[in-house]
Amino acid sequence: MNNWQKYLYLITVLIILNVSTCSCVFAVNQSGRKTQVTADIPSRYNIRLFGYTAPNAIVQANGIRTFAQVLSDKTGYFLIDPLPVADEALEICLITIDAERRSGFPFCHKLPDTDKPSEIGPILLAPTLSLSKGLIWQKQTAEASGQTIPNAKVDISFFETQQTASSNTEAFFRTLSKFFNLEVEAKGIPIISAESDEKGNFSVNMPNYKALTYRIFAKAYFDNSPTLKSQTLVFRVNPYFDYWWKYIFPKIIFFLIFILLLVYLVYMEAKTKKLRRVLIRFNEKKLRPFGVRAHLRFQRLLYNFQEYLRSDQK
Predict the structure, then answer these.
(1) Which one of 95, 195, 256, 299 is most buried, by most CB atoms within 10 A?
(2) Residue 178 — pLDDT band, cuts 50, 70, 90?
(3) What is the pLDDT of residue 35?
(4) Cβ(136)–Cβ(206) under 8 Å?
(5) What is the 3-state composition of the chain as percent helix, strand, coil, each rounded to the nearest 5?
(6) DSSP annotation string for 148-174
(7) DSSP state at residue 116
(8) What was the pLDDT predicted at 184?
(9) What is the largest CA-CA distance in the chain?
């Protein structure tokens, strides 16, 4: 192939790419603010996405060579219009990131088999969810909190999972702890309901009466329609007996050993008086000479300081 043919082939490819590339700009007016996103995407067609999520949250739409990002308004409403869709994209996934930088569970929707502009919505994105503590002891307090659509009902669901013991000793004391928690083992955990405030915040106290590992997720309702479920988190309640065994019992054992050792030393001293003789010898050979040397050094320093003051006055 000659050089001019190579150049002609290269120019033809560049022209085709330039024609198939669409420079798209879209803007959304949100509570007096304007969010503008620009992209150069080889697009097949445009779609319009809208729905509800937490207020002032980041909503991202992702696909193969497809991306857009907007902010929801104070009511949680968001709008992405238009969203250019690449030829390779088969589905669009939306995710919300709230003001506390917590991410919700992604929502993925298969794209329609059409080359015409279409609309998808309303989409009710999943609440965000986080735990104040991932591990607590029985009777301790912890809470689950998150953000979702304002003034919406929120259901917190719990699923119990069995804890696996890491050693035979742990398995033994976990079995032993059940004898101290018979009444709480019989209790069930219903779905805990809450309601988000005008800013979309919600929180509930975690169950702490049953020593188990829980899987927890949240789901909100907007006009009696459920949202997607949130991320599933793991929450563990350890038996209070384990706390005593791991933290309190070793201190008690150490204290008892110390008392027994002290009693033994007192008994042996009363019987042999060996310790008294050792202390007397130490006082005569070490402690008293050290005191005398220290006193002489102090007197010498005091004398030198007084002589310095006299010479300075002269």
Answers:
(1) 95
(2) low
(3) 45
(4) yes
(5) 35, 35, 30
(6) -STT-EEEEEEEEEPPPPSSHHHHHHH
(7) S
(8) 41
(9) 113
